[in-house]
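Protocol step 4 of 6.
Sequence for Exocyst subunit Exo70 family protein (Arundo donax) entered exactly as in the expression construct, tag removed. Do not edit the line below.
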Amino acid sequence: MRDYMSVSWERVTSHLVIAASSHKRLRPGLLGFFHTNARPLQSFDSSFNETCNSQMQWKVPCPVLRNKLRVSIWEHVILAYRLYLETLKQSAVSAAEDSEWGLQSKINELFEG
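Step 5 output, structure tokens:
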């Protein structure tokens, strides 16, 4: 399962992990002002949907394994997502937290075939 997670989901969460590291997230702009890169969440969302859509038709007949896969994906994705949210300003956090439910819903649709 480790190889599956690495191949399928590391690519998805890498957008958030890279953005959360302070030296990548803050860059000096013109006139020396620092600004944040707003694209990581969009890149994550696009990659997440692409991965889910490609795996939506996969069939895992064993309910125990199917649930184990979903839980592993959820834990991996939500950890990166929450760590990224911690780097955002408080005003943006509440809007992004609402998206957590959307992630959970999409993951729960995986492997039904």
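Step 6, annotate. The CA atoms of residues 22 and 87 lie 8 Å apart.
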